[in-house]
Hints:
The chain is mostly beta strands and 73 residues long. The chain contains 1 helix and 5 strands, in the order αβββββ.
Amino acid sequence: MNGLFTLSLEQKEPISLIYMADDHTITDRSIIVRKIDEIHIHAYCLKRQQMRKFKRANILAAGKALQRRKAYA
């Protein structure tokens, strides 16, 4: 996962997260990493449209974001 976080930080590319909040709700987020530290990932959340802090311990899975294609008629 560290490689994906670094890739997003350097290339400003979105990645997808499966994240468990402190109240044990699980969400799917698309983020662009802005800063990495030992405990948190600071990122722009595309779902909430604002900066968010994600605890590393609560990140269940991470992967490259799927590219959505527009359908042309």
